[in-house]
Amino acid sequence: MRTHVQRAMEKASKADYPAYGTNSDKSITKAQMKPDFGLRRDLHELYSVKDLDDEDPIGAGSYGIVRKVIKRNTGEAFALKTLRKAPWAQVPSSLTAVEYYHSKLRNELECMRQLGASLNVVYLYDAFEDDDAVHLLMDLCEGGELLERISNDEYREADAARLIRAVLRTAAQCHSRGIVFRDIKPDNFLFQNNDENAPLKATDFGLAGKLPKNRDEPLARRCGTPSYMAPEVINRKYGAEADVWSCGVVAYQLLTGRLPFRDVVNQRPNAKEVFRAILEDPLDLADPPWDVISEEAKDFVEHLLERDPKKRPTARAALLHPWLQTNEAQWKSKQRRQVSGGVALGGQVVARLQRFATQGLLKRSVLRLLAGEIGKDLSEVEKDRRENSAIASDIATKKKIIVVNGPIKQSKLTGIDEKEFLELKQLFDRLDTSGDNLVELSELEVGLNEIGYDVTGNESEQLLAKLDTSGDGVVELNEFLAALVDWESVEKSESYPSWVKRAFDLLDEDDSGLLDANEVANFVVGDADDIDLSDENNEAVRRNALIRACIAEADGDGDGQIDVEEFASLLQMDPSDGLDQYDWRFSQGGSYDDSFDDSVDENTKIAENNTIVEV
Fold this sequence. Notes:
Layout: H1 2-12, H2 30-33, H3 43-46, E1 47-48, E2 59-60, E3 64-71, E4 77-84, H4 95-115, E5 124-129, E6 133-138, H5 157-176, E7 179-180, E8 189-191, E9 200-202, E10 209-210, E11 223-224, H6 231-234, H7 241-256, H8 271-280, H9 295-304, H10 315-319, H11 322-338, H12 349-357, H13 361-398, H14 418-431, E12 438-439, H15 441-450, H16 457-467, E13 475-476, H17 477-484, H18 487-490, H19 496-507, E14 514-515, H20 517-524, H21 538-554, E15 562-563, H22 564-571, E16 613-614
Antiparallel strand pairs: 1-3, 2-3, 3-4, 4-6, 5-6, 7-10, 8-9, 11-16, 12-13, 14-15
């Protein structure tokens, strides 16, 4: 591996690589082959990156490598994925091929930025580039790939259920964000560390794609790993359901140790024969070890490997299958009873933090603003309540007749769960051990563990980075509320439209009815007067990319500005983005007892309807 990778990377660094061949499009320029992606270029100043002569890479693929790098000022280790900008031996025959490859690089970066704050996905800390490559700085997962951990002596069906639940959660999170993974397989899931119950994390979004806004419009490019491809991918007419099929293949493999559809003709597997088997061969749920596998597991696999995508369940529906849900429900029920603080929000704290963290920066920042405005109204209502209570008390005790000028002020918070806001404030105070009305990283990590959640220091840092929309390194109350409030319920409040309009007006500094780049910048990063979108300084590049991404979050018509309708649309919650598709991360101390829950919620019934190759 080292020789191949070393040779490829050395060639990539040469100014005349790739060379023009007989079939090359001679009009393609070097600038088109190796474009600027607008990323920062100070990787080597911040991190120690060893040369390939000094250290083997920890992973390699068709277009790049993964190396272990060290942060210079802390000594902390990370994984660095290096992707060549021009991986071809010869210049391609069309500019379209070049642009498609570069779009895949941008897609991978965008998908990881969007999903990386989920605890089911390898976290992307930063992205860099130089003239020859793009570098993604990620979590270093040292626990090995999914299949490497499985032992016939110790591996049980319950273990398979736990692992496939993590895989399905990744698929569900992708789909709720309009992303199709297209390469779900064991190789692309890594254990964070070598602990027995180490979290499983998805990696390598190189083939991920955007789902059409019209979900009925199919994708046509056949890509993925042949053995895990859905029938409709082979037939070039597919959607998000194709990922669910791949999850079914992984489940089959975890339960039996073999693939459900394979080439039994050729000694060396042939993609064409694998495709034929996927399209035509019957699904074997009889041969050993199926004779000792539960009927629920068989039913689960059979549903996911349904050849008709219209009858196949969605990823979210699959998560609610009794095989996964029964043990999950019993376990959650026990944990709620065992941990002292985990009952806050029904034990959903970490799941809600993840869901919030996968939203865009502009949406997270505006929700922080809304939380502050709602908090002000709550304080006003509470003040009125105390005053009215005092009047009532005075009447009762002194028997005085008091004439009130006008009716008592009515609550503006119809539809708001004031009890939940109070519960969140109490939870914030519990985490804020220093009493300074701010939650620091150490407080978040220790606090989450103390109230019954299993979150590592790095994961706490990742969550805090997304909670901290103001960028000051700590979490204030409004940022905390923004992440944990049940916004779907808040949307039903009579006051919600006025809060949204109030937030928009606060940002619309010139009262034009439109938010421009300067106003968005003032809100998100501050000091808009000093911002030059053409500045090539590393920090400026990073900041300007943030501003553009924030505008793109809401700018539905692409005019570079945000009107009030686009602003309101940005804040709308997606009902398909349920908490059940995030890891709740209760502490796994102790064993669970089946007697804690005698039944499973009726909503857990599955809905009935519901290397890499590119050909």
